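The pair is quoted verbatim underneath.

:::
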Amino acid sequence: MQPQHETKRILVIQTASIGDVILITPVLEKLHQAYPESRIDLLIRAGFEGLFDQHPFLNTLLLWDKKEKKYQKLFHLLRIIRRTRYDLVVTAQRFASSGFLTAFSGAKTTVGFHKNPFSIFFSKSIRHNISKEGSKHETERNLELVGWITGKEDPRPRLYPSSVNFARTSLYKTHKYICIAPASLWFTKQYPEEQWIEFLSKTDSDIYVYLLGSASDKSLCEHIMQQSNHPNTLNLAGTLSLLDSAALMQDAMMNFVNDSAPMHLCSAVNARITVMYCSTVPEFGFGPLSEDSVVVQSKEKLDCRPCGLHGYNACPEKHFRCAKSIPASELLDRL
């Protein structure tokens, strides 16, 4: 372990998806424990900053807007990073852009995964392996980046919804309720719409149901709500912030989600969770980490599953049996 006085400025880089950003939070926790007086900054993609509102020990959020003039903004970020003179820069991404920022950061110590194209320029390069036969959880792989400083125990991610987030969602908590996040960025990771409808139509009418998602998920949630005819369902897609959603999910009697970002939101606040795994498998190491968490997946032996790490926009085999063979009764059992 390095003496604390030698590491005063730390930057962690993760500019991938919301889920990946949440899964880097154990690294922030461990670095803060090792260096409680140090400045810890985080570089993420613009649009995800709401995850870290009023975070108790993050100093500065650096944001990379990838929507336009992506590489011009990348070089601008590099200038900011070099001016700050970080002692330690840690990147959890395996992409060239984050490796470039890390390698040329000017930091005394740079750490990243060996699969990063710029890893040959890092001070330390850590192995990163994913296997469908079973591997470490991604949080454990991330913690290996700083394990030489902090140790690697306690891999659960953490976010910090504030009293404001809980106040905003308190009006939804006057009845027993469940949350459903039915959408995913990838079609083959999304439990089918008609099966969400069947599940919701069979859910007890005295249980309130809140449908969650982004603004782009609003029409899907609306259709599920209308077709199910469940009397106490509310479509909240696009109306809650990320931390509002986490605050609501934390106190739900159950949360039903896909292998997607809402699963990681639940893990980060230790919310009860049931996860539908369709084309992907938990053995890749991205599964739920809440104390009360269950994975529901097809019991059919499908040679085509898993068909990929991230999913596809359509089933490559055109039958989507990995999702359609999961009965709604398995979700109802969790109630």
Q: What stands out?
A: The chain is about 30% helix and 15% strand. Residues 164-332 form a domain with the Rossmann fold fold (CATH 3.40.50.2000). Residues 1-5 have pLDDT under 50 and may be disordered.
